Amino acid sequence: MRGHMVLRVIAKLLIPFVMLFALYVQFHGDLGPGGGFQAGVIVAAAVIFYALIFGLQATKRMVPEWLVETMVAAGVLLYAGVGMAGIALGGNYLDYFVLARDPVAGQHLGIFLVELGVFITVSGVMLAIFYTFAGRGRGPRSGP
Amino acid sequence: MMAATALAIARVRNLFAVAVLGGLYSFMMATVLVVLDAVDVAMTEAAVGAGISTVLLLGTLYLTRSEEAAPRRRAVLPLVVALITGGLLAYGTLGLPEFGSPDSVIHHHVVPRYLEQGPQETGVPNVVTAVLASYRGYDTLGETTVIFTAGVGVLALLRRRRRDSDEEGRR
User: Fold this and answer.
1) Which residues of B touch A96 (CB under 8 A)?
2) In this structure, are residues B24 and B5 in contact, taking their beta carbons and an 8 Å threshold?
3) Interfacial A residues in 61-90 facing B (CB < 8 Å)
4) CB interface of A with B, residues 24-63, below 8 Å
5) Is ipTM beyond 0.90?
6) A106 at the B interface (CB within 8 A)?
7) Which of A68, A95, A133 to probe the B interface (max B CBs under 10 A)?
8) Do the chains contact at B44 and A37, CB–CB below 8 Å?
């Protein structure tokens, strides 16, 4: 899509705001609607939008494949790790009360970390699926 | 309008049009969910249903043919099965409590405790987040693992095939 001036300009205008909205949905999830899953999906949609307009190669330079594949596992590890931290600090699995001195603050921290884990995994998986689908058919056997 | 879109999806043979109509259907579904006060689900539906899955479908169409193969014979038996299943499901909804009724069973089990104690116990004003991440933390961990498994499955299936084709190309 080299020649589509309107699309490229609009995309450059929109993508930062989409990303910002995703961050808002992520970190405001305690107060308003939203959370890790929604934010992860919105970020992935923004990156896929970028890929549609500017091409897969440019996107892979921005968000490399190894990063995406690490994110897939890192989110689940973070989530499960929060649970293990609960055990290590003397609570039950996924018990957030023990994470900080004040139980309510512990809940806040726990929910924040868990939502972050969901966010990382969801956006990673969405992008990984997109990359594998979009990257196919461009190898040596490509063509109709 | 949603019914019209669904009918069009079933009738149209051009798969490109079907993918776009699917995105349209998802956006209308998201609107319905906003009306039902489920903004979280609406956001997910708009982003996943209309955005990402449409892109994935189009990406798949790029790899395959974009015309649906004509069916070899008329699909009478599947139609009958679908009608019977749909009829049974519609019959089943008659036994459900009235929509939004406060007397229904699910609103009497743990919901009052979550609603009353949630803000004090977790300090999180949004009850949905409190239930998802705190009270039902195990379930959410399971969901995250499901997504993880899906991603790993796609990577395992499609990446290996690409490497095979690379090797064939080299030979």
Assistant:
1) 134, 137
2) yes
3) 69, 72-73, 75-76, 79-80, 83
4) 25, 29-35, 37-38, 41-42, 44-45, 48-49, 52
5) no
6) no
7) A133
8) yes
Q: Which residue has the tokens 């809940």?
A: A107
> Which residues of B are less than 8 Å from A38 in CB distance?
40, 43-44, 47
| pLDDT tens digits along B125-147 | 666 777 776 677 778 888 888 88
The CA–CA distances, whole Å, from B45 to A95, B34, B56, B94 equal: 31, 10, 15, 27
Res A142 pLDDT > 50: no
- Tokens encoding B133: 């991440």
Q: For position B81, what pLDDT does the model report?
A: 92
Residue A143 has pLDDT above 50, yes or no: no
Q: Give the 3-state secondary structure of chain B.
A: CHHHHHHHHHHCCEHHHHHHHHHHHHHHHHHHHHHCCCHHHHHHHHHHHHHHHHHHHHHHHHHCCCECCCCCCCCHHHHHHHHHHHHHHHHHHCCCCCCCCCCCHHHCCCHHHHHHHHHHHHCCCCHHHHHHHHHCHHHHHHHHHHHHHHHHHHHHHHHHHHHHHHHHHHC
Question: Using a CB-CB distance cutoff of 8 angstroms, which residues of chain B are in contact with residue A141?
Answer: 165, 168-169
Q: Which two tokens stand for residue B135?
A: 């009270």
- Whether B64 and chain A come into contact, CB under 8 Å, resolves to no
Q: Shortest CA distance to A82 belongs to which of B146, B153, B144, B40?
A: B144
Task: Write out pLDDT tens, residues B75-96.
Answer: 788 889 999 999 999 888 887 7
Residue tagged 């959370």 (tokens): A35
**Do A118 and B140 count as a contact with CB atoms less than 8 A apart?**
yes
